[in-house]
Design brief:
By secondary structure, this protein is mainly beta. It has two domains: 12-250, Sandwich (Jelly Rolls); 289-373, Immunoglobulins (Immunoglobulin-like, Sandwich). It has three helices and 24 strands. It has helices at residues 12-21, 51-54, 102-106, and strands at 39-43, 59-61, 67-72, 82-87, 90-100, 109-117, 123-124, 129-137, 142-152, 158-164, 169-171, 183-191, 198-204, 207-215, 223-236, 240-250, 289-292, 298-299, 302-308, 315-320, 324-329, 336-341, 348-357, 363-373. The strands form four sheets. Strands 1, 3, 4, 6, 12, 13, 14 and 16 form an eight-stranded antiparallel β-sheet that branches. Strands 2, 5, 7, 8, 9, 10, 11 and 15 form an eight-stranded antiparallel β-sheet that branches. A hairpin with a 4-residue loop joins strand 10 (158-164) and strand 11. The chain is elongated and about 65 Å long.
Length: 374
């Protein structure tokens, strides 16, 4: 049976449903707390297994050294289970790692998130502690590209910093510490590019820590992988355990929109003026509208996609059909456009999806049309 979308605006719920239909080969376990809209893969570990990570041959568990990952009912953010990741980091590299590459390879721009629980303060003695990473693999290389590391401040408090592993550059922040004994939500928007057109944006409990644009995020032709990890060389105390719950890959933000109230036992430090907490933006006026092509027309060959966007737009992202990534435009000085070649799309009907985002990466507009390629 052929499913045709009406030529009109489509609700977010319909978009999420269509996206999930396209991924029926992937076993999904919907987290209790994750928003349904835009979710393309997820696990909350409530089935008591780690099977969602390896479903469809699209990932798995890849431990090294003295490391272990199990599903436990010791604690959970939602439901009654989470993943318990334990390493004995006493001087040699050791890692507990859960990887997923099917969706990371399919969606060139997506949101990756999980809930983390740190039961105690840890001293990072070996220089690095990797808890969230993106890798790229070719026939000859298999390297991390961007990593969320845990470090210690001068008073011993733990915090997240961002590492460009390929270029050996670290990005620091003074916006937030990591809480101890409390669940924390980490989310990354990762736009993959083998040239310097990629983007990495990081939020902790809805507060933006980093927004790094125009960077390289993968090898040309490489298979991209996302991982939640507990990976280090020397930590104290050790063995070191962290818990992970509600891991999600989505085409929309899943985390909270506002920062939580400060934890009295772990106060939020003074924001770094060079990397401030996002401030509320005025409500946008106008709406996102396709200018070229128009809804319902027949197109062929190559050309330029063009939309008009509401006020407050900082960027527009483009997809076709069931969330096949086309690209994005973050410079609207000449209009919101994207070159496109329809010859690789195949003949017949196709959906074109455009979404507008503000400077805090919040979606403020959407328009979906149907065109025919001949």
């Amino acid at each position: 049976m052929t499913y045709r979308l009406p030529r009109q605006f489509v609700s977010l719920a319909s978009i999420a449903f269509a996206a999930m239909l396209a991924l029926t080969s992937v076993v999904m376990s919907q987290p209790h707390t994750a928003k349904a809209a835009g979710v393309v893969w997820s696990t909350d570990f409530e089935d008591g297994t780690l099977n969602a990570w390896s479903a469809g041959g699209g990932g798995g568990m890849f431990n090294s050294g003295n490391a272990n990952v199990t599903v436990t009912n010791e604690r959970a953010y939602s439901g009654s289970r989470s993943a318990k990741m334990t390493i004995n980091a006493n001087g040699s590299d050791t890692g507990a790692r859960l990887h997923r590459w099917t969706e990371a390879d399919r969606y060139k721009g997506a949101y990756y998130s999980a809930r983390y629980f740190f039961p105690q303060r840890v001293n990072v003695q070996g220089g690095w502690w990797n808890i969230f990473q993106f890798k790229s693999r070719t026939s000859s290389r298999n390297d991390p590209f961007w990593i969320l590391y845990v470090g210690n401040r001068s008073d011993g408090s733990m915090y997240i910093y961002l590492r460009d592993w390929i270029n050996k550059r670290s990005y620091q922040q003074n916006v937030a510490n990591l809480p101890v004994g409390k669940w924390v939500h980490l989310e990354v928007y990762y736009e993959e590019a083998s040239d310097n057109s990629g983007r990495v944006t990081v939020w902790q409990d809805g507060v933006q820590l980093f927004d790094v644009r125009n960077v390289r995020t993968g090898y040309s032709g490489g298979r991209n992988t996302w991982g939640v990890t507990n990976y280090a060389s020397r930590l104290s105390p050790t063995p070191t355990t962290i818990y992970v719950d509600d891991a999600v890959i989505a085409t929309e933000r899943q985390g909270p929109g506002n920062a939580p109230a400060p934890n009295p036992g772990n106060p939020t430090p003074t924001p770094n003026p060079g990397n401030p907490t996002p401030t509320p933006t005025p409500a946008p006026s106008g709406r996102l509208t396709w200018e070229s092509p128009k809804d319902g027309i027949t197109i062929t060959g190559s050309g330029t996609l063009r939309v008009s966007a509401p006020s407050g737009t900082a960027g527009v992202r483009f997809w076709r059909d069931n969330w096949v990534w086309l690209g994005s435009d973050w410079n609207g000085s000449d209009g919101w456009t994207l070159p496109a070649d329809t010859r690789s799309w195949g003949r017949g009907q196709h959906r074109l999806i455009a979404r507008a985002f503000d400077s805090n990466d919040r979606q403020i507009g959407e328009h979906i049309i149907t065109v025919t390629v001949r």
